[in-house]
């Protein structure tokens, strides 16, 4: 499987969840685990460009696919991705635990709707839980990200 | 001192690494650690006849299985964090139960294995023979005491406390009007997005225990572990790395895992880690919000409060590790921003067979606010007055500070409001709320609150200017998202005349700062913020002294600006802070830019040794701030809602907040705290409910069924501020962390009552609850 | 929690999948995984075998046939949502798919998997029933068509045999007026109660062990919904009447 454009071998244990494989086998701890029920969205990654819950995928299922985690959006030295930049400008994160999941969900949203209406924004972020921000700043961040992405 | 950063909407220094996925949360740390899981009681109340771990120990990948019998501290009751003389029957659990379990989720055994999956497989093989006992679940049934949670606690009463200011009996008897009210609050849970986690390593060669813990108080954990394991404190280091939300329940002394994980690491010679899973979190982590109130209020025909008598029962859960702080806070906060000439409050803290309770954002204040605000609404309804008008007539006026309420506060002092302007909060909120939207089934809600913040006993800070000119600062308390690293940097940067980007702050790491209390009760800005100002001020003073020596001027003529110490208004007559840092060390060598500048100076000769008595090398200082009393923030929330008369769906049409937390260090951060708090309040008022059945089983221990709101359930919130500085601390700040959540239940309850025409006297609500209330009415 | 131990099979053709399912006891099919994997993570499902059908090629088509639209086994709910064919031929299905959980779940969840899972509060089984569609099931014994009104047999139960693979679902074309309306606690949650209107036909979901057809003039007749944490039986009956009224208002 490919993760952030790097090829990795498929893990041997079929019951290893993709979320745990990314975090503990590959050391990519940016993807977080909040529930393992598929509800909170903290574990969201891109699978072939579309947001999915990594806690609901067996790692073996990622074989032959391309996974993008939060670390894959902008390499260490590179400037922040427009979505990341927008979250920063709009105070869209506090503790940061839900943030990677939100950022990737928003990347997916903007790929579907580059100029989202407020309804499409809410629809697009409605699958991710945040306990810190109350979502207002995240909404602002999505609109700002749409602006920045078009520049 | 120029306040360039104080009050500015500075964007956070924490963001870059968190956005890139380079946060370091406790479960992110592996380092070859063994993994573990806890075996927990499936019964709310049971005697343990036997525990057999033989089969579990034989499972693949299992390194150890511990029960109470294997622990040297197995028969030790865990500490009570905050004892109190009224807590006559305080009880705490043991690390692992071996005789009785008293709530679903109580820990019974600890399994250490090569992976969490293998540990869970083995945990399933631990055989515990339980003999179920009768279960007490609601506070009402606990108070009736047909069954006891603890055999030696009569009536299930852990504590009783009565306080009175004035003479309530006489005042009630003399009141033209009286009303009795009953309010009921069910349990709620904080549910931070990061569940709890602990990682520990024991180094035999260095004789050092290192613990990473998703805790709100590393200093307490460190002190406790040192005592428990018989180690000097210098041999124990506890670090709260990035923490994914706290909201209260991540402060305990201890959760069993906080002892078991370090113990296992010491025993097994390998690092050990434990990460909670979400389902387990629901019953393993402290909850809050369960109370039942009987209220009698006496008032006159103008709606003025004459007497208030409150009698409530607080649901302690199975144990009282946190003492009776919660009911004390409720008792102290009921009067709120109003003049209550005669106030009596009695509470009983009762045991139930459920998860222990400890503060969750708001910490007893939401209940107090609901009681007072709904009582005022009831008075307004009886007299045919506007709800805002009843409040106007009872508000404490701006010229009445300091205002003594007459009851005790959680820090042992009396409740005394230091500053505020409550009438302005009300008027601004009403103005910002604006006119009622058209249409049927619309209701307006209104709620005011005060919030005791900034409780002591103290916090400290260390600030140091490095020879590079950069500044490092540290305090004992950790952040869980409140932007401490940014906010403390603003304070320090102002004192030292540097850029926020040049101040690196570390919190919650006992290696960097070993003294402190913790992050809770909206106290961080007041205590650690002021400590930062103290320490940075000391550094600035020393910098002026040293620079004055070398520039041959009077220290009073110097200012710190732009990374330099210079003669006021003369940038060409100064010395770089970096150079001053070098000059501060009599050895006077260093690597880096400061050295060259420093070597241009020959110190004025002075008698005596290079380091005079009382002097310390280096441009650094450690300072502390200890508040004389809590400082009182306040606010007013108002809203319009529409309730669908058929589906009972709630639509929040407009929600406004006017808020006063004294001088704001970073309004961006304050607004984020309020928005987050209001969202938790909305969740707690209409969506989140812990469904305990009569057997003490939590029926909805998952995010699928414990309904935390998504973005679609939370409206935009309009926030306005006023600032009434606190006279109690040099920065004039008050706490802001919990404000958003405190009045939300009262505000929504009031609005829903108007929209639907049914009395709202309980929390939480739901469409089902409203359906049933409407049915009862008709 | 972490999933319990299981053995994993990943067939690459439908024939292989059917053979594997026929040869194994206690096997569960893994398609989208959005229902199964949570159950594994809760350790509420403990199958000895997981048969992952995601490596089977060319069974993800959405195409027109017999005046309706066919959705194959591995077509993701998101693909159904975005499908121009579905929007044209069966816009009722498009409307219903939008109500299933959240987009991120729909990116993996399959429509056929949702039908096979047969959650009583799911929208898609009710749409199949309201429209009078059918599914196609394959096994080593061959292929059979199962009409919607026979497929669902109980809570989370269909009449599919343990070794049968649901390879296709077929929905007749929908015409106006149609509606799918549900009442849920949060956006994307399972419905407390829901209705599907297809012209003059009405199907209910969330109020019985399976989706049920009902009389628009008396939708609650004969219903004995269960109560749970967020809705009593009485509240569900009330919602059924309210939602039916809304669906047939136009």
What does this structure look like?
The complex is a heterotrimer of chains A (151), B (778) and C (250). Chain A has 151 residues and is α+β, with helices and mostly antiparallel strands. Helices cover 34% and strands 10% of the residues of chain A. Chain A has five helices and five strands. Chain A has a five-stranded mixed beta sheet with strand order 2-1-5-3-4, covered by helices on one side. In chain A, a hairpin with a 2-residue loop joins strand 1 and strand 2. The longest helix of chain A has 14 residues, at 99-112. The mean pLDDT of chain A is 96. In chain B, helix 13 (484-496) runs parallel beside helix 14. Chain B is globular. The model of chain B has no long low-confidence stretch (mean pLDDT 95). Chain C has three domains: 7-52, Uridine Diphospho-n-acetylenolpyruvylglucosamine Reductase, domain 2, CATH 3.30.43; 62-172, Uridine Diphospho-n-acetylenolpyruvylglucosamine Reductase, domain 3 (2-Layer Sandwich); 178-247, CO dehydrogenase flavoprotein, C-terminal domain (Enolase-like, domain 1, 2-Layer Sandwich). Chain C is 30% helix and 26% strand. Chain C has helices at 14-23, 36-41, 77-82, 84-89, 91-97, 103-106, 111-117, 123-131, 148-151, 233-247; strands spanning 7-9, 27-30, 49-52, 62-65, 68-72, 134-139, 142-147, 152-154, 157-158, 165-172, 178-183, 193-198, 201-205, 212-214. Chain C has a five-stranded antiparallel beta sheet with strand order 4-5-10-6-7. The longest helix of chain C has 15 residues, at 233-247. Chain C starts with 6 loop residues before the first strand and ends with a helix. Chains A and B meet through helix 2, helix 3, helix 4 and helix 5 of A and helix 1 and helix 17 of B.
List the defining traits of the structure above.
heterotrimer; B: 778 residues; alpha+beta; Aldehyde Oxidoreductase, domain 3; Aldehyde Oxidoreductase, domain 4; 3 domains; six-stranded mixed sheet; four-stranded mixed sheet; 19 helices; globular; C: 250 residues; Uridine Diphospho-n-acetylenolpyruvylglucosamine Reductase, domain 2; Uridine Diphospho-n-acetylenolpyruvylglucosamine Reductase, domain 3; Enolase-like, domain 1; five-stranded antiparallel sheet; four-stranded antiparallel sheet; 10 helices
């Amino acid at each position: 499987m490919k993760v952030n454009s790097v090829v990795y071998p498929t893990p041997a244990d079929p019951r290893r969840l993709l979320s745990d494989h990314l975090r503990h086998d590959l050391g990519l701890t940016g993807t977080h685990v909040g529930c393992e029920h598929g509800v909170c969205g903290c574990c969201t990654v891109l699978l072939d460009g579309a947001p999915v819950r990594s806690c609901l995928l067996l790692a073996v299922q990622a074989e032959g696919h391309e996974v993008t985690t939060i670390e894959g959006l902008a390499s260490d030295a590179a400037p922040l991705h427009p979505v990341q930049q927008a979250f920063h400008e709009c105070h869209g994160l506090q503790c940061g635990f839900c943030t990677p999941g939100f950022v990737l969900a928003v990347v997916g949203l903007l790929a579907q709707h580059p100029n989202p209406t407020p309804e499409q924004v809410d629809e697009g972020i409605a699958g991710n839980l945040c306990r810190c921000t109350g979502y207002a700043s995240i909404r602002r961040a999505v609109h700002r990200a749409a602006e920045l992405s078009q520049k | 001192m120029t306040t360039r950063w104080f009050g500015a909407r500075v964007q956070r220094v924490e963001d870059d690494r968190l956005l890139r996925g380079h946060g370091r949360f406790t479960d992110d740390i592996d380092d070859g650690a063994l993994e573990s899981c806890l075996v927990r009681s499936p019964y709310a109340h049971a005697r343990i006849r036997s525990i057999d771990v033989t089969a579990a120990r034989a499972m693949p990948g299992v390194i150890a299985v511990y029960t109470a019998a294997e622990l040297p501290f197995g028969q030790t009751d865990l500490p009570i964090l905050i004892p109190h003389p009224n807590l006559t029957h305080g009880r705490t659990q043991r690390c692992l139960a071996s005789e009785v379990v008293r709530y679903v989720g109580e820990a019974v055994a600890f399994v250490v294995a090569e992976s969490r999956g293998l540990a869970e497989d083995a945990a399933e093989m631990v055989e515990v023979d339980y003999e179920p006992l009768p279960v007490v679940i609601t506070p009402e049934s606990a108070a009736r005491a047909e069954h006891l949670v603890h055999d030696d606690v009569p009536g299930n009463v852990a504590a009783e406390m009565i306080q009175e200011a004035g003479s309530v009996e006489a005042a009630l008897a003399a009141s033209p009007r009286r009303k009795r009210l009953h309010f009921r609050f069910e349990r709620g849970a904080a549910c931070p997005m990061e569940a709890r986690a602990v990682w520990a390593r024991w180094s035999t060669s260095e004789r050092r225990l290192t613990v990473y813990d998703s805790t709100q108080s590393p200093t307490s954990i460190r002190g406790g572990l040192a005592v428990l394991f018989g180690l000097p404190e210098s041999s124990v280091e506890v670090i709260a790395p990035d923490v994914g939300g706290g909201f209260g329940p991540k402060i305990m002394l201890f959760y069993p895992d906080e002892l078991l994980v370090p113990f296992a690491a010491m025993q097994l010679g390998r690092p050990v880690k434990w990460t909670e899973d979400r389902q387990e979190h629901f019953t393993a982590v402290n909850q809050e919000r369960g109370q039942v109130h009987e209220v009698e209020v006496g008032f006159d025909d103008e709606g003025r409060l004459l007497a208030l008598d409150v009698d409530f029962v607080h649901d302690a859960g199975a144990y009282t590790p946190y003492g009776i702080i919660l009911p004390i806070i409720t008792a102290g906060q009921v009067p709120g921003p109003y003049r209550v000439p005669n106030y009596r409050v009695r509470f009983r803290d009762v045991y139930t067979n459920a998860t222990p309770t400890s503060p969750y954002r708001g910490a007893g204040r939401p209940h107090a606010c609901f009681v007072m605000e709904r009582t005022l609404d009831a008075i307004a309804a009886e007299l045919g007055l506007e709800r805002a008008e009843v409040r106007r007539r009872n508000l404490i006026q701006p010229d009445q500070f300091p205002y003594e309420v007459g009851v005790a506060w959680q820090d042992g002092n009396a409740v005394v409001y230091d500053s505020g302007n409550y009438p302005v909060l009300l008027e601004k909120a009403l103005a910002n709320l604006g006119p009622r939207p058209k249409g049927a089934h619309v209701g307006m809600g209104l709620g005011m609150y005060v919030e005791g913040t900034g409780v002591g006993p103290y916090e400290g800070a260390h600030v140091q200017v490095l020879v590079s000119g950069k500044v490092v600062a540290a305090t004992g308390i950790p952040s869980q998202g409140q932007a401490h690293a940014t906010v403390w940097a603003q304070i320090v940067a102002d004192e030292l005349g540097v850029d926020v980007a040049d101040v690196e702050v570390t919190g919650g790491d006992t290696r960097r700062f070993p003294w402190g209390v913790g992050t809770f009760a909206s106290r961080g800005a007041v205590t650690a913020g002021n400590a930062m100002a103290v320490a940075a001020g000391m550094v600035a003073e020393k910098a002026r002294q040293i620079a004055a020596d070398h520039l041959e001027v009077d220290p009073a003529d110097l200012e710190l600006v732009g990374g330099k110490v210079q003669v006021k208004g003369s940038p060409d007559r100064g010395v770089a802070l970096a150079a001053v840092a070098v000059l501060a060390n009599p050895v006077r060598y260093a690597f880096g830019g400061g050295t060259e500048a420093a070597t241009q100076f020959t110190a004025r000769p002075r008698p005596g040794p290079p380091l005079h008595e009382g002097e310390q090398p280096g441009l650094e200082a450690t300072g502390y701030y200890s508040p004389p009393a809590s400082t009182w923030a306040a606010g007013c929330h108002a809203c319009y809602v529409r309730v669908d008369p058929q589906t009972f769906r709630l639509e929040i049409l407009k929600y406004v907040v006017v808020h006063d937390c004294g001088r704001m260090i970073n309004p961006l951060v304050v607004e984020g705290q309020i928005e987050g708090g209001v969202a938790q309040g909305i969740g707690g008022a209409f969506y989140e409910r812990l469904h305990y059945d009569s057997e003490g089983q939590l029926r909805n221990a998952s995010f699928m069924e414990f309904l935390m709101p998504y973005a679609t359930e939370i409206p935009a919130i309009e926030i306005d501020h006023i600032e009434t500085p606190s006279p109690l601390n040099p920065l004039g700040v008050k706490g802001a962390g919990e404000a958003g959540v405190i009045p939300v239940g009262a505000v929504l309850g009031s609005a829903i009552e108007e929209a639907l025409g049914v009395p709202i006297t309980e929390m939480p609500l739901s469409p089902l609850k409203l359906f049933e209330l409407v049915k009862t009415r008709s | 929690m972490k999933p319990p131990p299981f053995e994993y099979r990943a067939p690459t053709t439908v024939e292989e999948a059917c053979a594997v399912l026929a040869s194994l006891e206690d096997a569960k099919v893994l398609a989208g995984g959005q229902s199964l994997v949570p159950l594994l993570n809760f350790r509420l499902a403990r199958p000895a075998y997981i048969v992952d059908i995601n490596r089977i090629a060319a069974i993800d088509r959405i195409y027109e046939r017999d005046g309706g639209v066919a959705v194959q086994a591995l077509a993701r709910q998101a693909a159904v949502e975005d499908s121009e064919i579905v929007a044209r031929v069966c816009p009722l299905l498009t409307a219903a798919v939008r109500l299933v959980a959240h987009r991120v779940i729909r990116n993996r969840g399959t429509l056929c998997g949702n039908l096979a899972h047969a959650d009583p509060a799911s929208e898609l089984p009710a749409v199949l029933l309201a429209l009078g569609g059918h599914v196609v099931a394959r096994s080593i014994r061959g292929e059979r068509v199962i009409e919607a009104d026979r497929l669902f047999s109980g809570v989370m139960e269909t009449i599919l045999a343990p070794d049968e693979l649901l390879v296709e679902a077929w929905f007749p074309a929908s015409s106006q007026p149609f509606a799918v309306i549900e009442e849920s606690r949060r956006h994307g949650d399972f419905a407390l109660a829901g209705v599907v209107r297809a012209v003059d036909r009405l199907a209910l979901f969330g109020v019985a062990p399976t989706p049920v057809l009902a009389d628009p003039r008396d939708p609650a007749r004969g219903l004995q919904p269960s109560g749970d944490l967020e809705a009593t039986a009485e509240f569900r009956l009330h919602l059924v009447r309210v939602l039916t009224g809304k669906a047939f208002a136009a």
